[in-house]
Write a structure and sequence with these properties.
There is one protein chain. This protein is mainly α. Helix content is 53%, strand content 2%. Strands 1-2 form a two-stranded antiparallel sheet. The radius of gyration is 48 Å and the shape is elongated. This is Cell division protein FtsB. It comes from Actinophytocola oryzae. Keywords: Cell cycle, Cell division, Membrane, Transmembrane, Transmembrane helix.
Length: 173
């Protein structure tokens, strides 16, 4: 046993930690503690062991954290998606209103011409100029007049009783 190098005694540290062996190099460098060999346990297992949690408890804590995150994200996400749909609907409505405004401005420009106003009065209101003789020609295929509220009276409806009118309205006759 003379060929074997002399072993140094293990150093003890304070603070309740396990003593570590120290190797001293022969070339005079300072001593380094020997790192113990890694065991087959993973980092999470070692962390769980440090906190005293079993695998089931870790899974439960993880599930609670995931649920809390999902619930904290769900409400703002739902609000965002709802508002995004509302914004798209309002933008579509705004585009429709702009097209209506353009159509009304074109109509206003048309009605600025006195000849156009006169033609509209003749066609829609059936006005005539003083000294003109109006003629009304009704053709058999005409459904009536262009004037709103000027519905032709139905002779058939006047002859029927109220319950017959109701039944015809319900049955679609």
């Amino acid at each position: 046993m003379a060929d074997e190098p002399a072993r140094e005694p293990r150093q003890r540290t304070t603070g309740g930690r396990r003593p570590q062996s120290v190797r001293r190099p022969k070339d005079g460098r300072p001593a380094r503690p020997v790192v113990p060999a890694r065991t087959g346990r993973s980092r999470t297992v070692r962390a769980a062991a440090a906190f005293g949690l079993s695998t089931t408890r870790r899974a439960a804590v993880f599930a609670i954290v995931v649920c809390a995150l999902a619930l904290s994200v769900a409400v703002p996400l739902r609000t965002y998606l709802g508002q995004r749909d509302d914004v798209a609907l309002q933008e579509q409505r705004q585009a429709e209103l702009r097209s209506q405004v353009e159509a009304l401005e074109e109509r206003k420009a048309q009605l600025a011409d006195p000849a156009q106003v006169e033609a509209e009065a003749r066609r829609r209101l059936r006005y005539v100029m003083p000294g003109e003789t109006p003629y009304m020609v009704e053709l058999p295929g005409d459904s009536g007049s262009d004037v709103p509220g000027d519905e032709p009276a139905k002779g058939k409806a006047k002859d029927e009783s109220w319950y017959q009118l109701l039944w015809n309205a319900v049955s679609g006759e």
